[in-house]
From TrEMBL:
Name of the protein this chain belongs to: Adenylyl-sulfate kinase
GO biological process: cysteine biosynthetic process; hydrogen sulfide biosynthetic process; sulfate assimilation, phosphoadenylyl sulfate reduction by phosphoadenylyl-sulfate reductase (thioredoxin)
Tagged with keyword Amino-acid biosynthesis: yes
SUPFAM superfamilies per UniProt: P-loop containing nucleoside triphosphate hydrolases
Molecular-function GO term, any one: adenylylsulfate kinase activity
Catalysis: reaction(s): adenosine 5'-phosphosulfate + ATP = 3'-phosphoadenylyl sulfate + ADP + H(+)
Enzyme Commission no: 2.7.1.25
Record family assignment: Belongs to the APS kinase family.
Gene3D superfamilies: P-loop containing nucleotide triphosphate hydrolases
Top-level enzyme category: transferase
Superkingdom of the source species: Eukaryota
Source lineage: Eukaryota, Fungi, Dikarya, Ascomycota, Pezizomycotina
Pathway note: Sulfur metabolism; hydrogen sulfide biosynthesis; sulfite from sulfate: step 2/3
Amino acid sequence: MATNITWHEGLSRAERNTYRKQRGMTIWFTGLSASGKSTIATALEQHLLHLGFAAYRLDGDNVRFGLNKDLGFSERDRNENIRRIAEVAKLFADSSTIALTSFISPYRKDRQTARELHATPSPAHPDDEPLPFIEVFVDIPVEEAEKRDPKGLYKKAREGKIPEFTGISAPYEEPENAEIRIETVKTSVEDAVKQIVTYLEERGLLKLES
C-alpha cells in the first residue's frame, strides 16, 4: 500500500449533485458472455444522454485494452479486474455521473466488494450519503448464450482453446439479490432500458422532466 499520501478535500457529493443537477450512481450489469449486457448498457447510455443526463459506459473488453491490459483471466486476475473497475466506477459516480459497467463479474464476492466500496464515504466527507449501486442481472441460460456466441468464444471454449471460460470451464455465481433481473430471451433491448429507467425513477434516483 502506498505511503506518504494525503486525501485532498474537495466539493462534497451533495454539492456536485446540485451543480450538475443529477445524482451520480453505478449501474452494474452482470451476466454470461453473450447475455446482452453490453447491448443493453449501450442503449441505456444513449437513452440517458438523450434525456440530458451525464452517463458513461465502462465495457469489459474495452477496459482490457487499456487500464487492465496487464490482467489475464485467472480467478486472481478477474478479482483484480473487478476491483479496479469498481474504483473507476465509483469515481465516475462521485462526480455525479451515471456509470454503467458491463462485465461478466462472475463472483458474488467481487460484486459485493464493489457494492461496499460505493457505500464507503471519502475521508474528507464522512457524512456523504452512500453512492447508489444498482446490480442488473442479465439472465440467460448458457445454452442460449452459446447459440448467440457472436465472438465464437463458447465454441473455442468447448474445444479447449480458451481455458477458464465462464459458464463452461469456470463458474458464474448468479446474483441472489440483484436490484433488477432481465431475462433477455423474453425481453427486448427497448423494454430492458424502460425497466431500468422505471426502477430508477420510482426510487427517486432519476428525475425526469414531465
